[in-house]
Structures are given as structure tokens and as C-alpha cells.
Specification:
heterodimer, A: about 500 residues, alpha/beta, Rossmann fold, six-stranded mixed sheet, about 35% helix, about 25% strand, globular, B: about 350 residues, mainly alpha, ABC transporter involved in vitamin B12 uptake, BtuC, about 75% helix
């Protein structure tokens, strides 16, 4: 591709980009280019290398090898500031705004317009308003950013990029936290940007957005380029095949186990506005998938079940008997384990060893009615579960902080098995762990249900939900909007329920 | 989502690098404070003649014991990520109250009076713990809501009675002032003379070893046992490491915190008794600023100021380092301003070294 003369059309070419981290070949000779005024969608699963590619483009990472051309000129982008100067802006999912500062201050952060050694507020407000108006956004630029919703904050970020004369804007999952209407607004804004000749790299997990917004699509898988296509030439199925690369059964080693008796029953569980009227059952030997969009109340429901938050309505039954769960220790005593989405913040104590993390929730199970720990017994138990979960660690005394994401996740599973959990709630069990480790986590789930446990799996990844569940519940707006058997589930059906049944009968 | 896979790689990258550092660190961690202690002792022995005489060494140990006792309780508090600024005042209060009870006109049994003083500071510590975790009274709340107050007052009161946490620094700062004030009030600023037999704890020796040194060592063994072999001890590390994880693992973090501040109060009380016994009197003006020495000992001993990491033996070494440096400065005839400067430098250098090695 190098050396061809059509540099006018291409604002960006990245050639044979290679990046290694210890133990991970994050990017393997990846090519990527971007035309003026196009929306180029970047697709790939977690760990496919999308973020690494973007970090290299923005200057946050340096590639081990490879070349970057901007408007035909070879460049080296050594820092994010460098990248900004060259006209590359990234709008991250977690927006980089200072909540307490005003919209205008955020847009001119670090480069306030000055007059006589003082900030020229009038000019700053005026210019901020002008930039926002270019995007058809009308906000009071004097108000602090925290007063605005995610969608409006996004507009502030995009306008800020324009103020920096960005001609390449990277949007990292921009619609993840937006409502339908806000997404429409965003798409309008993207069209405005295109009309100005700005090029956009658009990262998303929502395949159905690709035909609406994209011109071309590039798929990465396991750090390698799978291909770049014109959007009009590919179907959804093509894209899925490109992303996954193998068929679903290899990826999801689902084993069907005879469903046992009822283990858990929840009746009209609710708390405030987040969760209401949630009812379902979980059987022994069953993996119950819970799908839904971000903010649908899935994690909140799990927290109620586990006592992390107290429910104000509803009943919980375990093996047919009503139980009271108002704090985590209640749930742990009853044999409920909760593998939180945020392993580091909520699942593990990073400064403690693998062994001590494994037994952390099991003091009462291992040493009932005694204030003492029997260190020898504790160690044996930790050893047993760490080995059973195949946690790869140099020793039991190794700090859990130094394990890989997959092994940390397995340590969390070990922790909840050690506490004799019969009901295991996995919240986004494979988020942020690499492909091989994912399969291992699925196999662990298989083994758990074989032993008679029940698993509740909350997941935003449709293939995972469809590939591993025995039954799928879909949540929308704090309650369950439908139940589907995996045989008849499609992404479309799940999505329709997740959006509250929009489109099914034409009403919202 | 894309973000998190990136974080994983960043974390793995970091983890690799730190893995190597970790092995090195495990040794250095233990060696820095102990190594520093040994180095100081060796240098002092070579350069300063009177330092290594048995009499001086025993004197150093005796002087170290009160601070070491204060620092033992402080270790628990700092391991949870907290701090207790009130221990100096508590020490003074115990002296005033217990010695007051055992002297004229009450003439209590000195040991009974001591135990009572220690129990009192334990209760004070736990009371501060309740402020730190936040008071919660559903009964009071209900009573307010059902009462016939004006609506505005009701809403203000119900806000006030909602569970509100106050940072440990603030609670114990207030405690430091209030307890000091109560001590002054009770004693009217006058020292109380203790009966002779009370002096045993602070002044006598068993063989060549002073009683307070033995007592301190026993306390450290018990603290070690608590931290390493009990559910409570492990919970202290868990709460300091990550409160949310500890809570989601079924640990009652409120109970742990109240007990930790109670234990710190108890040990401050014990330190106060040992000090009063050594001085043969209860004085309200003792212990001013001693909380800072205790904190310094904990930090020099390698316990992380943010909690979750560290241990009791490091604190013992820290307390010894402080005592030895003060002793050396005294032997060299350094005036008190120089001693302050030296102490400040020791803390700064110790934490600097510790952090740089941990990196």
C-alpha cells in the first residue's frame, strides 16, 4: 500500500504496526487507513487489539515497529499531546472532562485565551459557544460539566476536539451509555463532522450500528487484521464471522446438564427506581443468562440477591424456604457467591496473597464459632481450591495483584467455592480476560453446574449469553422484559427485548 | 469494553515488571528497617563509647517501651487505613485518673485502678470508632418522623441523625483536644503522687531486664498473634486493603473498625499506666505530641500509610530506631532543637527509602 500516490484521499495510513507486551502480542503487523470525511468502524472482541491500535495512534503507546503517515507524511507520535497537535483527538468512553469546571473551561483547558495576563473570559465563552453551535449543541457554557448528561458531555468533548482543529476523531464506544434518542443526535453530529471533512474512527460493539453510520469497517481478532471492507458489501453475519473467526461451539464449550430441582426463587424483588418486580427461578445444574443494556438493572438485581444493597420489596427463597438477606454475610452463609464485574475494586484484595484472598469469604465456613484461624487448615483449603480452579500462580503466597486477569478471575471463583457457594452470580465473567482464559472460565461454569450448583451469568456479550446459557432472561428498565431459550435466541430478539420490545409491534 | 482489555494489558505489563521487583522487595522490605537499625547500632557502638554500655542499652529499651506500646495499637489503626491522634491525650488521662484513684483519699488497689483506667481508654477509643463508622439509630429516626415538630426542623433533624461518617483524622483530632481538656479538668493541673508499690511496673527489673520492656515484648507477641492467627486480625488487613471487597466478603467492617480503635485506646491506656508508674505520678501534661512519635514508629517500620500492608514487628523496629537516635543525640549533647530536626529527617528519609524500594 505504501508509495501509492493517492495521499490526498487518505488522511491516515498505519502500516505494519506491531506491538508486544510481555506475554501478549497485542498487534501483529496491522495495517489501517482512513479517508478524508469517512467513518471507519473498528470492530473486534475484547482483547482483539482495538484499544492498543488507538493508543498508538493517539501517542499513548509507541509501536515496536511500523509506520504512521498523516496526509502522506511519515510522522512519529510520541505523546498524546503530540497527537493532539497533529489533529488527532480521542473521545473516550469515560469522558476526560473535569466535572467541577465549566463547559467552556473544559473546552479550553490548558490553553485559555489570555488578555493582559488574565483569562479573557468573554472570548472563551464566545468561542466555546461558537464551537458547540457548529455541532448544533446549545448548552450554557458557564455551567459546570457535571450538570449535563453523558450525551451532552460527549458533545462538549467533540466540540473541544474541533477547537483543537482535529481532523481525525476517534470515538470509543460512544453509544454505550446513550439512549435511543441521544444516539440519533450523536449520529447527526457525526454527519456534521463528515461534512466538515473530519474523519472518524468509530469503535463499537453494536454491530447493528455499523450499516447506519459506517462507510468502511475493519475487523481485528487476537491482534491481527482480519480485513477491511466497504460496509455496503458486508452483512451482520459476515462481520460476526470475521470477529469470532471460529464457530460458536468451539468458543463456547457448553455442556448440557439435566436440570435439577429448584435452587433459588425470587419474587417481585425491588429497590427504589433501579429494580422493580423482578421474579425468576434458578435450578440446580442450570446456567441462567441475564442479558440487557447497560443500566437495565442487572448488576443492581445481583447486588440485591447478594445483600450488597438491601431490597425494599420482594422475597427470596432458597430451596423452597424463604430467606432474609440484608447484608453480604447473610448471603454468604446461605451459599451465595457474587463474582463482581470489577474484580480489582470489588473482588480481590490486591495486596493480599492468593491464599488469603481465597479464604477471605470463608472464615465462618472454615472456622465456625471460633475467633481463631487455623493456618494449616486454611492453607490446605486454599491449596485445594486454587488447584481445582487451575489458578496459575508461582505460589500460594504470591500477591494476587501480580496474576493475569484470567488467573485473578479464577482466584475469585476459588474464593466463592471455598465459601461453599451453591448459587454463583457471575457479573460479566469474561470481561477483560483473553480468549484462551475465557474458554477456561466457561469450562469452570460447566463443572460447577455439573456438581449441582446454579449459575447466574450477567453478560453484555450476546454470543456469550447465547452460547453458554440454558435459559436467557432479558432485563430492561429495572425489570425482566422477557425470557428466551438459547435455541431460539438471536441477537436481534434479545436486543428487541433489551430495548423494551421496541419495533415488535411498532410502539415504544 | 475496549478500555478494559487495554487495562488488562497495561496491568499485565505492569505486573511483569513488578513481579521482578516484588521478589527483590520481599527481602528488602524486611531488611530496610532492620538493616537500618543494625547499621545505626553498629555505627553508634564504634563512634560513641558510652552508647554500648549495658546500662545505656537497657536505658534505651526502657525509654523505647512507652512509645512502642503506643505504636502497637497505632499499627492496627494504620493497617485499616486510619489514624489516631488522641493516644497522647489518652495516656495522660489514664495517668491522672488511675493514679488519682490509687492515691489519697481513695486509696484503691493500684492494679485495680490501672485496669479501670485502661478499660476507660478502650471505651473512649471504641466511642471514637463509632463516630468514624457513623452513628445510626432507626429508633431515633422513627421517633423524629412521628413527632409533632415543624416540617423544616424534622427534615433537618432526620438529616443529622442519618448515618454520617467522619474521617478518623478529624474524630481523633477532636478526641485529642477533648480528652486533654477532661484530664486538665479532673487533675486541676496538679500532679498526683502514686503509692510506692505502683512503681514496680515502670521501675523494677526482672534479672537485668526492666519490667516495662518485658511487658512491651509480651504485648507485641500478643499483637502478632492477633494479626496473624485470628479472624479479626486478617479482617484488619482486608479492611485496610479494600473496604468494599472486605464488605462483599462478609466481613463486618464497622465492627472491625470499632474494635481497632478500642484496642488502640486500650494499648494507649496501658502505655499511660507504664509511664505513670515510671514517673511515680500521674501528670496531665505528659504525652503531648507522643501520638506523632507512635505514628513515626509505625511508618518507619514499613506499614503502609494507606493501610492493608505492614506488620507489628516492623513497628517494634521503628520504635527502637527512634529511641536509639534520641539516645545518641542526647549522648552527643545535641540541644533539643537539633533533636527535633533529626527526628523529622529520620521520618522523611525512612519513608523515602521505603517508597523508593517499593517501586
Amino acid at each position: 500500500m505504501s508509495g501509492n500516490g493517492n495521499d490526498n484521499e487518505y488522511v491516515l495510513r498505519m502500516e505494519k504496526i506491531d506491538k508486544r507486551f510481555p506475554g501478549v502480542h497485542a498487534l501483529n503487523q496491522v495495517d489501517f487507513d482512513l479517508k478524508r470525511g469517512e467513518v471507519h468502524v473498528l470492530l473486534g472482541e475484547n482483547g482483539a487489539g482495538k484499544s492498543t491500535l488507538i493508543k498508538i495512534l493517539s501517542g499513548a503507546y509507541q509501536p515496536n515497529s511500523g509506520e504512521i503517515y498523516l496526509n502522506g507524511n511519515k510522522v512519529e507520535i510520541t505523546s498524546p499531546h503530540d497527537g493532539q497537535m497533529m489533529g488527532i483527538s480521542v473521545v473516550y468512553q469515560e469522558l476526560n472532562l473535569v466535572p467541577m469546571l465549566s463547559v467552556a473551561e473544559n473546552m479550553f483547558l490548558g490553553r485559555y485565551p489570555m488578555k493582559n495576563g488574565m483569562v479573557d473570559w468573554a472570548r472563551m465563552y464566545r468561542e466555546a459557544e461558537e464551537l458547540l453551535e457548529e455541532m448544533n449543541a446549545h448548552l450554557d457554557v458557564r455551567l459546570p460539566v457535571r450538570d449535563f448528561g453523558v450525551a451532552q458531555q460527549q458533545m462538549v468533548e467533540i466540540s473541544k476536539s474541533l477547537g483543537l482543529n482535529a481532523n481525525i476523531i476517534v470515538m470509543d464506544e460512544p453509544t454505550a451509555a446513550l439512549t435511543e434518542r441521544e444516539i440519533e443526535e450523536l449520529f447527526k453530529a457525526i454527519h456534521t463532522l463528515k461534512a466538515k471533512g473530519v474523519s472518524i474512527i468509530y469503535i463499537s460493539h453494536r454491530l447493528e450500528e455499523v450499516p447506519i453510520i459506517g462507510d468502511r469497517v475493519t475487523v481485528l481478532r487476537d491482534g491481527e487484521l482480519v480485513g477491511t471492507r466497504e460496509v455496503k458489501d458486508v452483512t451482520l453475519d459476515d462481520m460476526i464471522r470475521m470477529m469470532i473467526g471460529r464457530n460458536l461451539t468451539e468458543k463456547f464449550p457448553k455442556e448440557h446438564i439435566e436440570r435439577g430441582e429448584e435452587l433459588l426463587r425470587v419474587e417481585r424483588l425491588g429497590r427504589g427506581k433501579d429494580v422493580h418486580d423482578v421474579s425468576f427461578t434458578l435450578h440446580k445444574g442450570e446456567i441462567l443468562g441475564i442479558a440487557g443494556l447497560v443500566g437495565a438493572g442487572r448488576t443492581e438485581t445481583a447486588r440485591l440477591l447478594f445483600g450488597a444493597d438491601e431490597h425494599d420489596t420482594g422475597k427470596i427463597f432458597l430451596e423452597g424456604e424463604e430467606v432474609q438477606i440484608s447484608k453480604p454475610s447473610d448471603a454468604i452463609k446461605l451459599g451465595i457467591g457474587f463474582l463482581t464485574e470489577d474484580r480489582k475494586g470489588q473482588g480481590l484484595i490486591l495486596a493480599l496473597s492468593v491464599a488469603h484472598n481465597t479464604t477471605l469469604a470463608s472464615f465462618e465456613a472454615l472456622f465456625p464459632n471460633s475467633p481463631l484461624l487455623n493456618l494449616k487448615h486454611e492453607r490446605e483449603q486454599a491449596d485445594y481450591y486454587v488447584k481445582a480452579m487451575r489458578v496459575r500462580t508461582p505460589s500460594l503466597d504470591h500477591r494476587v495483584e501480580f496474576l493475569s486477569g484470567g488467573n485473578q478471575q479464577k482466584t475469585v471463583v476459588a474464593k466463592w467455592l471455598c465459601s461453599q457457594s451453591r448459587v454463583l452470580i457471575f457479573d460479566e465473567p469474561t470481561r477483560g480476560i483473553d480468549v484462551g482464559a475465557k474458554v477456561e472460565v466457561y469450562q469452570l461454569m460447566n463443572e460447577l453446574v455439573k456438581e449441582g450448583a446454579g449459575v447466574i451469568m450477567i453478560s453484555s456479550e450476546m454470543p456469550e449469553v447465547m452460547g453458554m446459557s440454558d435459559r436467557i432472561l432479558v432485563m430492561h428498565d429495572g425489570t425482566i422484559s422477557g425470557e428466551i431459550m438459547p435455541e431460539e435466541a438471536t441477537e436481534e430478539k434479545i436486543l428487541r427485548l433489551a430495548m423494551g420490545g421496541i419495533g415488535e409491534n411498532g410502539t415504544e | 469494553m475496549a478500555q478494559s482489555s487495554l487495562q488488562v494489558k497495561e496491568a499485565e505489563l505492569e505486573a511483569e515488571a513488578r513481579l521482578r521487583a516484588a521478589r527483590r522487595r520481599m527481602w528488602l522490605d524486611r531488611l530496610t528497617s532492620l538493616g537500618a537499625l543494625i547499621a545505626i547500632v553498629v555505627i553508634a557502638t564504634i563512634l560513641i563509647g558510652p552508647f554500648s554500655t549495658p546500662r545505656n542499652l537497657i536505658n534505651v529499651l526502657r525509654q523505647a517501651s512507652v512509645n512502642a506500646l503506643l505504636a502497637s495499637g497505632m499499627t492496627f489503626v494504620i493497617l485499616t487505613g486510619g489514624i489516631d491522634l488522641s493516644v497522647g491525650s489518652q495516656m495522660a488521662l489514664v495517668g491522672v485518673i488511675s493514679v488519682g484513684l490509687m492515691s489519697e483519699p481513695s486509696n484503691w488497689n493500684p492494679w485495680l485502678a490501672s485496669v479501670l483506667g485502661i478499660v476507660l481508654t478502650a471505651v473512649i477509643g471504641a466511642f471514637m470508632g463509632f463516630w468514624i463508622i457513623g452513628w445510626k439509630s432507626p429508633k431515633l429516626e422513627r421517633a423524629i418522623m412521628q413527632s409533632r415538630m415543624p416540617l423544616g426542623l424534622k427534615s433537618v433533624l432526620s438529616k443529622i441523625t442519618q448515618k454520617t461518617e467522619v474521617p478518623p483524622f478529624i474524630v481523633t483530632l477532636a478526641g485529642m483536644l477533648i480528652i486533654r481538656g477532661i484530664g486538665l479538668w479532673i487533675s486541676e493541673g496538679q500532679p498526683r503522687l502514686a503509692p510506692k508499690e505502683f512503681g514496680w511496673l515502670g521501675q523494677e527489673s526482672i534479672g537485668p531486664i526492666p519490667v516495662p520492656v518485658i511487658a512491651t515484648f509480651l504485648v507485641y507477641i500478643i499483637c502478632y498473634f492477633i494479626l496473624s492467627r485470628t479472624k479479626f486480625g486478617r479482617s484488619v488487613y482486608a479492611v485496610g486493603g479494600n473496604k468494599e471487597v472486605a464488605r462483599l466478603s462478609g466481613i463486618n467492617i464497622n465492627s472491625v473498625l470499632v474494635r481497632v480503635y478500642g484496642l488502640c485506646g486500650l494499648l494507649a491506656g496501658l502505655a499511660g499506666i507504664v509511664l505513670a508508674s515510671r514517673m511515680g505520678s500521674g501528670q496531665v501534661n505528659v504525652g503531648n505530641g507522643d501520638e506523632l512519635n507512635a505514628i513515626a514508629a509505625v511508618i518507619i517500620g514499613g506499614t503502609s500509610f494507606s493501610g492493608g500492608e505492614g506488620g507489628i514487628w516492623g513497628t517494634l523496629i521503628g520504635a527502637l530506631i527512634i529511641a536509639i537516635i534520641l539516645n545518641i543525640l542526647n549522648l552527643l549533647g545535641v540541644p533539643s532543637y537539633g533533636q527535633y530536626i533529626a527526628r523529622g529527617l529520620v521520618i522523611l528519609v525512612a519513608v523515602y527509602l521505603d517508597s523508593s524500594i517499593r517501586r
